Write a sequence for this structure.
């Protein structure tokens, strides 16, 4: 059983989509007892067993179908349930000679990873990421300063990237990510923002925020005009970022930003 949880942790920490299948009840002659477990990825059986033969083949197919449906459900709600119970007669439903029945519980993990990409690892970013690790998300933090990246929590949900050319890293942002710019200031935020906006016709992001004041926002709006970008692009990013709550303390700023991220995430999932 310990090895099962080690394999489960491998998949969770690796952000690999998978389904956990557990035998929760049996009646009569069946190939496995209640409590038997297996893990299934898009490639098939990853670890464990719930019976072998035809019943396991059917369970793997069911798990893969759930995984595919959940990952393909762009609405993030409704049709693609994360869990499912099934009860199969091994004779009638599976075509086995066994006269018993088995009840299985399926649960999908990691199929909808909430990716958040943070440019900058300064004080506010440190507070923000320490808050985000408590949520069901995966955070990538990009900065040119390794010493600041080293201060971030060592956590399976956090990936750090040291890069000297921050605008170049825009091409590496996973599709569908929430993107936050909180580098050392306007001089370093501006080129990243413009790089993202220049590619907006080909790739959009559900959330784009830049830390700063209303005065910084006015400066960024001018930058958009000077770059020859459409005027409506000024509406594509949040600046100031976060809900209008709290003070300028880094941890209160972090809470206000996380609140806005959750608000936008749930709006897009509705």
């Amino acid at each position: 059983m310990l090895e099962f949880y080690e394999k489960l942790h491998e998949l969770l920490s690796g952000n690999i989509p998978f389904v956990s299948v557990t035998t929760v009840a049996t009646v009569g002659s069946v190939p496995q007892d209640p409590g038997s477990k297996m893990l299934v990825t898009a490639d098939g059986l990853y670890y464990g067993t719930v019976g072998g033969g035809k019943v396991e083949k059917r369970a793997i197919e069911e798990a893969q179908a759930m995984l595919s449906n959940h990952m393909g459900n762009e609405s993030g709600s409704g049709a693609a349930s994360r869990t499912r119970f099934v009860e199969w007669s091994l004779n009638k439903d599976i075509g086995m000679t066994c006269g018993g029945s088995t009840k299985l519980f399926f649960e999908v993990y990691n199929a909808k990873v909430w990716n958040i990409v943070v440019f900058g690892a300064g004080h506010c970013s440190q507070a923000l990421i320490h808050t985000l690790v408590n949520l069901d998300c995966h955070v990538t933090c990009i900065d040119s300063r390794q010493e600041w990246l080293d201060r971030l929590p060592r956590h399976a949900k956090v990936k750090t990237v040291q890069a000297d050319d921050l605008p170049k890293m825009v091409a590496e942002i996973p599709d569908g990510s929430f993107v936050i710019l909180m580098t050392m200031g306007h001089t370093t935020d501006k080129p990243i923002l413009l790089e993202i906006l220049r590619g907006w016709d080909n790739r959009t992001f559900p959330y784009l925020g830049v830390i700063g004041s209303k005065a910084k926002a006015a400066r960024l709006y001018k930058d958009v005009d000077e770059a020859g970008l459409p005027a409506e692009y000024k509406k594509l990013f949040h600046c100031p970022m976060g809900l209008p709550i709290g003070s300028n303390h880094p941890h209160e700023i972090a809470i206000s930003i996380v609140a806005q991220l959750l608000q936008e995430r749930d709006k897009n999932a509705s």
User: Anything to note?
Assistant: Strands lie at 18-27, 37-41, 44-48, 83-89, 101-109, 115-119, 138-143, 158-162, 178-181, 207-210. The domain at 115-269 is CATH 3.40.50.720 (Rossmann fold). The CA atoms of residues 172 and 253 lie 27 Å apart. Confidence is low (pLDDT under 50) at residues 74-79.
